[in-house]
Write a structure and sequence with these properties.
single chain, 436 residues, Polyamine Oxidase, Chain A, domain 2, 8-stranded mixed sheet, 20 strands, globular
């Protein structure tokens, strides 16, 4: 069966691997000159490579770890202390164990108790459907109190969702707390975080190599212009270089991009696609010759800062080098998307020095800025009833992206598990008379 896949990110490459391994004739179409998407790497002039965006791997990410072992990457997994904290009024407050939590002076003792109880209740709450119809703010105030919301959750939500979070469902907080609390286990609540030695791009490369070993093909610089629809089913795929034909096609891209590829689709279906909204991401990355702090991650509670998080990991192959990611999530049309790299560097470093007054720019060995318009699908209220199926209304055409993993967060673990699910669905949907 001839199967085309649009998109060379983790979802598309993993899907291609699973399908090729099962004997399908797979062709992966990547619009760029190399694979990776959000899992790409940056290579500086001196040859030093770092992840374009930071991707964490939790000890509980069984699917991802199993895939790494299957591809011979098990020895590339690195786990380190998940020392975390909050930055409030330019002061760092550790939040890595139970003792840090008990001494968290940003909240009073009563509110700390309510916050701790809320986290414990969330970890034990397996039913999330009722949270789908409730806003994150409404739920957080109800279970954690107004004071905790104003001091902790409001600034975090404003930073995460670019100031607009009124329609964000409580399922987002439920999923986030469950995932992050799985890092920290009782009684001390200390934990570890993992990543691949050469970044997630090594996983992309291993998947691509295996895909081709199983007979799959990868076409680069294959920019799809339109997916033609004929009589309720998949037609030809038009690219800048010509047309292609497949028995089945999977669009492993963000929903807004998919919508633009099917202009002839039913207006009702296009309207459903438009309900899927995304966050963009601007992420400077620095390579330093000295550590910025001894924290893996710091979350800022001041939404006026241009970045919301500080993530630091040691470079696994370059001693005395430290990688620092400073991400800012934005609306896709946010003005920051068009700001020059030099201006972003100045703004980010100016604010970074407020937290770390001793930080000097001469410690920066490399600095680069990455931007992506569609990074993370937003958990909107009532998303359950608007969740898009893998099978589109058109026979032979499928959609596979992280908006479909709801209510889970769009992590690498969720993406790989979903890619495997999509592969199974496609094999079951094989057209009558089409043989592998």
């Amino acid at each position: 069966m001839r199967i085309g896949i649009i998109g060379g990110g983790l979802m598309g490459v993993a899907l291609g691997y699973f399908l090729a391994k099962s004997g399908e004739q797979v062709t992966l179409l990547e619009q760029g000159l190399h694979l990776g998407g959000l899992n790409d790497e940056l290579v500086f002039e001196d040859g030093l490579a770092v992840p374009r965006y930071q991707h964490a791997l939790l000890p509980s990410d069984a699917v991802l770890q199993a895939l790494c072992a299957e591809l011979g990457l098990k020895d590339e997994l690195i786990f380190q202390s998940a020392r975390a904290g909050f930055v409030n009024q330019n002061t760092i407050h550790p939040m890595s164990n139970i003792f840090d939590f008990l001494s968290f002076s940003v909240l009073g003792l009563r509110d700390r108790f309510r916050l701790g109880r809320m986290i414990l209740q969330t970890r034990g709450k397996s039913s999330w459907q009722e949270l789908d119809t409730m806003s994150a703010k409404e739920w957080l105030v109800r279970v954690g109190g107004q004071e905790a919301f104003e001091r902790i959750w409001r600034p975090l939500l404003e930073a995460k969702f670019d100031g607009v979070y009124d329609k964000v469902a409580a399922t987002y907080i439920w999923a986030w707390l469950n995932r992050m609390s799985s890092v920290r286990q009782a009684p001390q609540l200390s934990g570890t975080i993992g990543y691949l030695k050469r970044g997630h791009f090594s996983l992309i490369k291993a998947l691509a190599d295996a895909l081709q070993q199983y007979g799959g093909k990868i076409q680069y610089d294959a920019r799809v212009r339109e997916i033609e629809l004929q009589d309720g089913q998949l037609g030809r795929v038009r690219t800048h270089a010509g047309t292609l034909e497949f028995d089945m096609l999977v669009a492993a891209v963000a929903t807004p991009i998919f919508a633009r590829l099917i202009p002839a689709a039913d207006a009702g279906y296009l309207a459903r696609l438009e309900k899927s909204t995304y966050l963009g991401l601007i992420c400077p990355v620095m390579v330093l010759d000295t550590p910025l702090s001894n924290f893996w991650t710091l979350n800022l509670t001041d939404p006026t800062y241009p970045f919301a998080t500080i993530i630091q990991t040691p470079h696994p192959e370059k001693p005395n080098c430290y990688i620092v990611h400073l991400p800012r999530y934005t609306a896709p049309d946010n003005d920051w998307m068009g700001v020059a790299d030099s201006d972003i560097r100045e703004a980010w470093i100016t604010h970074l020095k407020k937290i770390f007054p001793a930080f000097k720019e001469e410690h920066i060995l490399h600095f680069a800025v990455s931007r992506s318009r569609y990074v993370e699908p937003i958990h909107n209220i009532d998303m359950l009833q608007n969740k898009l199926d893998i099978q589109t209304p058109y026979a032979g055409l499928f959609l596979a992206n992280t908006a479909q993993v709801y209510p889970q967060l769009p992590t690498s673990e969720a993406a790989v598990a979903h890619a495997r699910l999509v592969a199974d669905r496609i094999r079951l949907a094989r057209p009558v008379g089409v043989m592998t």
